[in-house]
Amino acid sequence: MLSSCCGEVTITQSLLLLLFTSSICSCLYSYRRSVQAGVSGFVKDTATWWLDVAADEDTDVDWNNGTRAAGFPYRTNFTVETTPTTEACIFQNQRSHSPVLRNGTFSSSRLLQLKSLIKKRLALAKLHVKSIRLNDKITNLSSARLITHHFHKGRLGNWMFQAASLVGIARTNRRIPILLTTQKDKSQLFEAFHLSLIDQAALFRNATDMDRSTVPDTGAARYNSATKSLTSLPQTLVLSGYLQSWKYFEAYREEIRRLFTFRIGVYNKAEKTITDVLRTLDDEWRDAVLVGVHIRRGDVTDPDMNDVGHVPATDGYLLRSVEYFQAKYCRVVFFVVTDGVAYARALFAHHGANFAVVEGHFRQPEVDMALLTLMDHLILTVGTFGWWGGYLSDAGEVVHFRDWPRNGSTFARQFVREDFFPPTWKAWS
Question: What is the pTM of this model?
Fold first, then answer.
């Protein structure tokens, strides 16, 4: 029997206390090593997605200049003492339970969050449709203060900027935004985009009459403050240009986000893409942080486009952005949306993290955009498509390529960065 300041303690009690303390230390050490060790996995290639999970090595990264030590893989690994923080790792471990259901599918907090988010967006969109029908009702066409847009030819991102700016400028000037009957094609992708459709002949006697009512644009990505004072102009106005600035509609941000709520069928396809990837992972990875990566290649690699000022994002920017999120979180799955699938696969082939390069949606770009809006964080490159993925999302962090358009180019002279990029987004190069 031993004695202590707290009284007498038996040898048996002392041994039990020693074993308990040893067990705690062992568990803590094992947890630390499991975080250091990284994850190993496999390569799987199908017609719709590509996933690469490889073993990691401890790596030192110089975050001052964004480089990595020679000879180390791109995938960087951090211990509990550096980044990601112990708290972040513990948080992810606490929510990493994905019970298997009887029908062979699995459930996880991540998938439940996605379903809840989609359900909430659709519910708000339905409420907004009622508001539009109440507030934008046209009782007398000849006296109504209407405003529309020429809608230049362009893909989805360009169309959305013109439509959003139309609504924003209409609200600012207390006018009713409308679409001409020839402009409804892309509006059908969205649950709440139900602006009135009016035939052009009912508004203007001829093309000259329409031109007299047109408000000119001042640049591709340059805010025109004159659009705030259009009350004294003709009864029906027609906007022109790309109107690519968030400042035209930021005061009505929530309305714009609801107008651009995708239809349930679009969301279902985006959700299935995410689910198909997550179900292939080990349980602890099914609740990983989801980071969307939009990579535009295609036309921006064309010499003629380069002459104007368009440039693709660099490999260095993309890899440094990926490493940033790998450093910040224990488990990250990257969903890559791109028109350059071969380029993306080659770029990330040896990066040693979870990458899903999404394929098969080229004829349905709205599905790719919907997928981006469901991500926790976003890495954007160039153009308006990825921009809208960021604006419509609830992403915690959105980073974009700083060096687009090329300095000194024709495009750059029309482009005002502060007018195009929201101030909360991070510009990296």
Answer: 0.77
The answer, yes or no, to whether residue 39 has pLDDT greater than 50, is: no
**Residue 397, Cα to own-chain centre: how many angstroms?**
9
Beta strands in 182-322 (DSSP E): 196-198, 214-215, 236-239, 289-295
Question: pLDDT-derived band of residue 92, with 50, 70 and 90 as boundaries?
Answer: low
Cβ pair 242, 227 in contact under 8 A: no
Q: Residues in the chain, how many?
A: 429
Preceding amide of 405 cis, omega within 30: yes
Contact 346, 74 (CB under 8 A): no
Contact at 8 Å (CB) between 336 and 273? no
Task: Give the Cα separation of 237 and 341 in Å (integer).
Answer: 43
d(CA 101, CA 275): 14
C-alpha 342, offset from chain centre: 21
What is the Cα–Cα distance from 253 to 87, expressed in whole angstroms? 33
Which tokens belong to 249? 């509609």
